[in-house]
């Protein structure tokens, strides 16, 4: 199965509850997908939500509290291997046991402890903690009565921590849950780039100087810059980034070659823009500069003409004087 070519969306982002309808939709840029199938996965068991059809939407009603995986298969016109996409969702009961989660709101860095306290109106509850891994949730601490948990990050980046709880006498795997997100910074350094550097839009500068708009690829040709590898469409690149921002697991399902191609392309963007910036005056002259250059060239031509005219006048004058001298000498001889 091929992954990373479809985008799954739910009409409800959070607070999914049992026995409430949820609309699932899928979109794709792949042209050879002819049918879609929607599947739910719960505790290792997979069930069909909607069988293969041309419909790109379906209605799903979760029957249990807990973590689900929603998968969509895209049947291909010219291949027996379908495209596949999946997302993780969590369904809870309408009765909220977790009233609040208290934790440090200031910036934390690698090695600092994040102290998490779960607040509930009920006393006899069990709490379990998970962290979002590369593929799925990974356990931090199994069910226990302690509502406090201390987490220490060993690497930077945004961390998602899932807190689950249930009553002691509950037969459910989970009665309530919540997710908190926290950003751990690598170094204790603050730097305001906007304050220290001036922001320059190269394409707008070109438009201002030349009174016409231009794309980056055409601008690169003017500066004699030629990219390595295939050219990527800007619209396709924007769509890919949109998918990554909407579904943080999307990039984990993208082929490694596709990720490397995009990173190389963006690296070339940065390098090429810098080259354009430092060699700007070697290639670009504004309309005002062109007018000034033309005027200066015209002045030079006028000066040349005046110099030539003066030279001719001087030569004529010298010839006249020489002629007059010869006439005077002739008279004296006579």
Per the principal axes of the C-alpha atoms, what is the gross shape? flat
Residue windows where pLDDT falls under 50 for at least 5 positions? none
Count of distinct strands? 17
Percentage of helical residues?
Answer: 25-40%
Task: Report the span from N to C terminus.
Answer: 121 Å
The string of secondary-structure elements, in order, is EEEEEEEEEEEEEEEEEHHHHHHHH
Q: Write down the Rg.
A: 37 Å
How much strand content do the residues show? 25-35%
| Number of H- or I-type helical stretches | 8
The structural class is alpha+beta
- Biggest sheet record: 6 strands, mixed
List the helices and strands and how they pair.
Blueprint: E1 2-3, E2 6-10, E3 16-17, E4 22-28, E5 33-42, E6 45-53, E7 57-60, E8 66-76, E9 83-92, E10 100-102, E11 108-109, E12 113-119, E13 125-132, E14 137-144, E15 148-152, E16 157-167, E17 176-185, H1 193-196, H2 202-210, H3 216-222, H4 234-246, H5 250-253, H6 256-278, H7 280-283, H8 287-333
Parallel strand pairs: 1-9, 3-9, 11-17
Antiparallel strand pairs: 2-4, 4-7, 5-6, 5-8, 8-9, 10-12, 12-15, 13-14, 13-16, 16-17
What does this structure look like?
This protein has helices spanning 193-196, 202-210, 216-222, 234-246, 250-253, 256-278, 280-283, 287-333; strands spanning 2-3, 6-10, 16-17, 22-28, 33-42, 45-53, 57-60, 66-76, 83-92, 100-102, 108-109, 113-119, 125-132, 137-144, 148-152, 157-167, 176-185. It has 334 residues and is α+β, with helices and mostly antiparallel strands. The radius of gyration is 37 Å and the shape is flat. The protein starts with a strand and ends with a helix. The mean pLDDT is 79.
């Amino acid at each position: 199965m091929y992954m990373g070519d479809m985008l799954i969306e739910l009409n409800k982002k959070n607070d999914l509850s049992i026995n409430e309808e949820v609309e699932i939709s899928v979109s794709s840029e792949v042209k050879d997908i002819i049918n879609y199938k929607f599947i739910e996965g719960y505790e290792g068991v997979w069930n069909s939500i909607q069988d293969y059809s041309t419909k790109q939407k379906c209605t799903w009603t979760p029957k249990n509290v807990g973590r689900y995986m929603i998968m969509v298969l895209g049947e291909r016109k010219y291949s027996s291997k379908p495209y596949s996409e999946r997302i993780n969702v969590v369904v809870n009961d309408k009765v909220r046991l977790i009233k609040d989660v208290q934790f440090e709101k200031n910036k934390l860095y690698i090695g600092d402890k994040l102290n998490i306290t779960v607040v509930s109106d009920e006393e006899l509850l069990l709490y379990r903690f998970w962290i979002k891994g590369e593929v799925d949730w990974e356990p931090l601490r199994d069910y226990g009565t302690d509502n406090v948990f201390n987490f220490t990050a060993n690497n930077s980046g945004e961390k998602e921590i899932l807190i689950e709880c249930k009553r002691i006498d509950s037969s459910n795997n989970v009665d309530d849950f919540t997710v908190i997100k926290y950003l751990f910074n690598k170094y204790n350094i603050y730097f305001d780039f906007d304050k220290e550097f001036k922001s320059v839009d190269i394409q707008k500068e070109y438009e201002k100087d030349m009174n016409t708009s231009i794309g980056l690829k055409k601008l690169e040709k003017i500066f004699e810059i030629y990219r390595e590898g295939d050219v990527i469409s800007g619209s396709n690149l924007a769509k890919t980034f949109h998918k990554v921002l909407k579904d943080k697991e999307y990039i984990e399902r993208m082929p490694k070659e596709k990720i490397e191609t995009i990173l190389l392309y963006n690296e070339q963007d940065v390098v090429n823009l810098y080259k354009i910036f430092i060699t700007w005056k070697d290639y670009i002259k504004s309309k005002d500069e062109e007018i000034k250059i033309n005027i200066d060239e015209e002045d030079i031509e006028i000066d040349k003409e005046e110099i030539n005219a003066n030279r001719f006048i001087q030569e004529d004058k010298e010839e006249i004087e020489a002629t007059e001298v010869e006439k005077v000498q002739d008279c004296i001889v006579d």
